[in-house]
Fold this sequence. Notes:
- By secondary structure, this protein is α+β, with helices and mostly antiparallel strands.
- It contains 17 helices and 11 strands.
- It has helices spanning about 1-45, 65-75, 95-105, 130-145, 150-170, 180-195, 205-220, 225-230, 235-240, 245-270, 270-275, 280-290, 300-330, 335-345, 365-375, 410, 455-475; strands at about 80-85, 90-95, 110, 385, 390-395, 395-400, 405, 475-480, 490, 495, 505.
- α13 packs across α15.
- It is globular, with a radius of gyration of 28 Å.
Amino acid sequence: MEQIYTYMNFNDITFIISSLSLLICIYAFFTFIHRVTQWYKSRQRRPPGPIGLPFVGYLPFLGKEPHKTFWNMRKKYGDIISVYLGSKYTIVLNEYNVAKEVLSHPGSLDRGPDIFNHLGDIGFIVENGARWIEQRRFTMSAAKDLSLGKDYWGTLIMEELFDLIERLQGLNGKPYDISEDLLNSLNTSILSLLIGRRLGKDEVDKLILAVEFDEAAITKTGPSNPTSLIPGLRKVFEIFKIAGYDKAKKTIHQFKSFMKEEIYKHKTSQPFRDIPDFINSYLEKISEISKTNIKDHAFSESMLEGNLILLFLGASDTVYSSLGWLLRIMCKYKDVQEKVHAELMEILGKDGRAKYEERDKIPYTFAVLLEGQRYASNVPLSTTRKANQDIPVKGYIIPKGSDITTNLWGLHHDPTFWDEPEEFRPERFLTDDGRKNIRKPPSYAPFSLGRRNCPGETIAWMEILNYFSEILKRFEISTPPGMEPEFEIINGLVTRLAPQPLCFKERNV
Length: 509
């Protein structure tokens, strides 16, 4: 009896194990089928797009102007395109309403850090969540408070600007490539806001460094740049000294050291402590927080260093590119140039100064600046966001982990919103009576959309207005006799125009 009992128990156990194994296999099978079905459905719901090549994706087919390539793809794939750029699955937003919906979604608030990895710590632009909100809020508020209507920085800007004007006056209208002088002047002006002083004549090396850093950071970076998208490619270029990437790495390190030195001076030298600049504003905030029990914050000298670099990059190249385009556009549209000059002289006179906070007084001039941003779209593709969750839009799903970029050039040249977009028309940004500006029309996003728009926007507008108005008041701008304005671009995160000599003929004012 005992043996039979034992035998029966053994059979029971075997049966139970066999049954459980069968059930587990059935469950695993149906789970697999379910997941495959869900994957297939998700693939079916993803935005359409072209099939690229292994490893490089669609990069080889983008051409010199990727924004125009994406725009032309709209005819086949629609307003939302999915494409592999290198190994990165990227969503391209090609239309204003779609872009507004996606970029306003909480799932698109994160920034993908990969594109800026080579710059190291560059402040809040690579932060997400509470740290990003905290640092962005303080940084933008401090920069605005220091710049908007403040005599200290305004004086530094005008000193730098008048040095540039004297240089142009000395040319006596002869053809001259203003590019280098303009970039040097703008960089000095922006640095003066951040470090509280103009670079001295004995600091030419730092001015050269600022120009080289700007070049290294902007022209060798971008949402369609292979070295920003293919893992390890930038490192290969640096090691084998390809296309100047080794020099760019060295320049980036040197500029970061320059910022560290300036922070140290502000901490250890009394004359520097008394300057109303961004470094002192931030150091004061660090000091205030250190006296409280607040532990959950991101204020640090390392973050300050990154925010300085971020503000410099956010304003410097954008302003330089914008002014380069505007001066070239004035050569093409001479009637617009004359209207700007007439308004400035009538409202401001020879010695009056255009102020950003008083831009309503010169609506036509500011309309030219607004239209200049649309026409040039000098940031053609926005910096990438990273989807932190699945984002539904127009019947599609943008899957979690996707990179997201907006075709800002496409938004600004969409005939649905802009009549004859290839034409330069400041009147688009004026009310019917011409007395007020229309500042935020649909499909207009020169500094991107949503809460992660460009942090240097206010500084950029101030500098563009200052330089443009003073130059237009004093000079008639033209191309050399027999030459037409050229609009060949140098691609990068910000597109620049290839250099061309211009003539600055001084007016009798």
